[in-house]
């Protein structure tokens, strides 16, 4: 196909008779409310260990996880997203008709198409534009950054951002490296206009060269091939696999500088923070990150992984909602949040807590 | 600047001590990281990253699984410093 830059003939000239409307001066954005949903069923380590020849103690030592929540079989990503969204809208004091955009960060909505976001919007009574973000455990922070820019740019007044995962559907219960790590849940926030800056500059990026470090085990086309040849075995299902040590190294020594940059770009110091809410990947990663960042000991750190496991895109808003609800962190305070995961991708920003 | 195997062993023992609290004297050449020193995969990665910094070498993730004993690590670091 011919490239526009190499087209041999000069194209038509523009009419130049219309000027696009100026939709207003740039403005600030902030998180107005948060919400979370954890499914009812609590799954203890004892329920996981037999299939991976492991023990409760082994899982606790390596991950910090004691229990996690699993969604019911008939409970979908959209069901969980709806529960978290309603709480966030209520907290924000924003009605569904006011929503200008719906962003869902998820990698476990089981339809390639349509996306989860339009159905969520519809259930809430909204016809706002809606789409899903595939940025794994960084998805929520990606969503916050994009929503913030939408509000600042004027393309939406209020944006609903949801991180939701039903990872139990995409976990291989026999995989020793990942069977115990994941959980299900949803978290959401509403981002709207503000008189003062409420969301700091986002430090984000990707390293696609490490795409195999956390990945669906095979492509859907390969699933089709296995299915067609009727050689189905437990490897047909494209569960998520992970190279634990590689991810650990990247997460701790690669992401601590990203978190530091987010602090620097926000124009604050680590000691100004009222909360550190990293993606809940593994307690060892969280502890090592705190050490690398040399965070003052009195700053509350999210350690929800102990009872929620790793809920990917949902982990940060779930922890934020709980910490606010339990008065562990102050409304109006500054929180450093960082998401990182499959891609590999990452995003970090300092936000004002709603 | 290449170091002797004894110097590398001593430096490595300090790193292991810092990560696990194990006595530096227990970090001997023929000890296995997992079986004798009871070091798990994530602690091992912390030791590897600290060793990279201390000895000025690069130890790829793919190499880490081959470092079963203290001697394996000392030999690898000495070779990488070459």
Automatic annotation (TrEMBL), chain A:
- Kindly state which keywords UniProt assigns to this record, in alphabetical order: Acyltransferase, Cytoplasm, Fatty acid biosynthesis, Fatty acid metabolism, Lipid biosynthesis, Lipid metabolism, Multifunctional enzyme, Transferase
The record, for InterPro entries, names:
ACP_syn_III_C, ACP_syn_III_N, FabH, Thiolase-like
Q: Name one GO cellular component term.
A: cytoplasm
Q: Which residues form the Beta-ketoacyl-[acyl-carrier-protein] synthase III C-terminal domain?
A: 264-351
Gene3D superfamilies cross-referenced by the UniProt entry: 3.40.47.10
Tell me which EC number(s) this protein carries: 2.3.1.180
Signal sequence segment: none
Q: Name one GO biological process term.
A: fatty acid biosynthetic process
Described purpose of this protein according to its UniProt entry: Catalyzes the condensation reaction of fatty acid synthesis by the addition to an acyl acceptor of two carbons from malonyl-ACP. Catalyzes the first condensation reaction which initiates fatty acid synthesis and may therefore play a role in governing the total rate of fatty acid production. Possesses both acetoacetyl-ACP synthase and acetyl transacylase activities. Its substrate specificity determines the biosynthesis of branched-chain and/or straight-chain of fatty acids.
Report the sequence similarity comment from the record.
Answer: Belongs to the thiolase-like superfamily. FabH family.
Q: Please state what the protein is called.
A: Beta-ketoacyl-[acyl-carrier-protein] synthase III
Q: Which organism is it from?
A: Intrasporangium oryzae NRRL B-24470
Ranked from the top, the taxonomy reads: Bacteria, Bacillati, Actinomycetota, Actinomycetes, Micrococcales
Automatic annotation (TrEMBL), chain B:
Which Pfam families is this protein grouped with? Answer: PP-binding
Q: Where in the cell is it found?
A: Cytoplasm
Protein species of origin: Intrasporangium oryzae NRRL B-24470
Q: Per its record, how is this protein called by name?
A: Acyl carrier protein
- Which PANTHER family is this protein grouped with? ACYL CARRIER PROTEIN, CARRIER DOMAIN-CONTAINING PROTEIN
SUPFAM superfamilies in the cross-refs:
ACP-like
Q: Which gene encodes it?
A: acpP
- Presence of keyword Cytoplasm: yes
As stated in the Swiss-Prot or TrEMBL entry, residues carrying the post-translational modification O-(pantetheine 4'-phosphoryl)serine are: 41
Q: How is it modified after translation?
A: 4'-phosphopantetheine is transferred from CoA to a specific serine of apo-ACP by AcpS. This modification is essential for activity because fatty acids are bound in thioester linkage to the sulfhydryl of the prosthetic group.
Name the family the entry cites: Belongs to the acyl carrier protein (ACP) family.
Where is it mostly found? cytoplasm
Q: Which PROSITE patterns match?
A: CARRIER
Residue ranges annotated for the Carrier domain, each copy included: 3-81
Q: GO terms for molecular function, please?
A: acyl binding; acyl carrier activity
Keyword annotations for this protein, in alphabetical order, are: Cytoplasm, Fatty acid biosynthesis, Fatty acid metabolism, Lipid biosynthesis, Lipid metabolism, Phosphopantetheine, Phosphoprotein
Q: What does this protein do?
A: Carrier of the growing fatty acid chain in fatty acid biosynthesis.
Listed under GO biological process in this entry are: lipid A biosynthetic process
Q: Which GO terms describe its cellular component?
A: cytosol; membrane
The family database entries (Gene3D superfamilies) matched by this protein are listed as: ACP-like
Pathway field of the UniProt record reads: Lipid metabolism; fatty acid biosynthesis
Query: InterPro entries this protein is in?
Result: ACP (IPR003231), ACP-like_sf (IPR036736), PP-bd_ACP (IPR009081)
